[in-house]
Amino acid sequence: MMNKTTTALIKAALVEDLGNGDITSEAFIPEELQSQARIITRKKAVAAGLSVAREVFNQIDPTLQVTLLTTEGATLEPGAPLLEIEGATRSLLSAERVALNFLGRLMGIATLTQSYVDAVAGTGVTILDTRKMTPGWRLLEKEAVKLGGGKNHRIGLFDAVLIKDNHLAALGTEQKNMLPKKIQELRLKHPALKIEIEADTLEQVAFFLAIKDVNVVLLDNMSLKEMRQAVALKNQMAPTVRLEASGGITLENIRAVAETGVDEISLGALTHSALWADLSLEIK
């Protein structure tokens, strides 16, 4: 999870929080005071962002001793410890909030993702994220999705092809004539990339399934009946093409969506609607 981007992000977060210094700790905590603390979860949660939190403490004070007490992706019960930190109390307190912010956000995503994955257990459906990510946090949040049992749809605009409704609208009335040729040219230019296209109607589904080199058809905001019909079309016309459902999917209806026979379900909610994990740093 650690890379140059994440290291820089942590540095920026610490600068943002500390400014000219931790006035409260410097005023009330003796410079020589040493402490030991643990970060615990107050509610059941999936561990994510442990290495990020450790880097926060290390950037504040390299002499702090940080011990991981669990593993990334582990499901934790209420009261379970994540990290133990030992060293200068001032440093520990100065790093506390930023470390908890990273952990809370990333564990919230991992925990929510696990809920969706559990909801479709046994159906064979893959739970995917989207590009609805916090700017600058994308790689961290996508890693949290994986720790919760989901998979990444694509990192950005550069590593997969997704022809959406706005692309089709921009092509205008000529889209039906232009699409097969453009997709063929795209495949020749990018032979290894996944090519996906968004469909709003069953008529579009049938048209897109007939285009060679399309790997995935995205079923956007379709009813359960329409999804089942799309699955039947796929099985008849192009069994190797995968169908992805998206739009209007919640924990309450995701099982029914999965049981239509689609292969994948993508959810922006994994990131934009995840509640932060309830965590606490406690000095012993």
Provide the helix percentage: 40-55%
Largest sheet: 6 strands, parallel
Amount of beta strand = 15-25%
Radius of gyration: 23 Å
- CATH structural class of the largest domain: Alpha Beta
**Low-confidence segments:** none
Report strand order across the widest sheet.
6-11-10-9-8-7
The count of DSSP E runs of length 2 or more, i.e. the number of strands, is 12
- What is the number of helices? 11
- The chain-level structural class is alpha/beta
Distance between the termini: 29 Å
Spell out the helices and strands N to C.
HHEEHEEEHEHEHHEHEHEHEHE
State the CATH superfamily name of the largest domain.
Answer: Aldolase class I
- CATH topology tier name of the largest domain: TIM Barrel
Shape: elongated
| Mean pLDDT across all amino acids | 96
Tally of discrete structural domains? 2
Describe it.
The protein is α/β, with parallel strands linked by helices. The chain has 2 domains: 4-117 and 274-283, Aldehyde Oxidoreductase, domain 3 (Alpha-Beta Complex); 119-272, Aldolase class I (TIM Barrel, Alpha-Beta Barrel). It has helices at residues 4-18, 23-28, 50-60, 89-119, 138-147, 165-171, 175-189, 202-209, 224-237, 254-258, 269-272; strands at 34-41, 45-46, 65-68, 75-76, 81-88, 126-128, 161-163, 195-199, 216-220, 242-246, 264-266, 279-283. A 6-stranded parallel beta sheet has the order 6-11-10-9-8-7. A 4-stranded antiparallel beta sheet has the order 3-5-1-12, covered by helices on one side. A two-stranded antiparallel ribbon has the order 2-4. The protein is elongated.
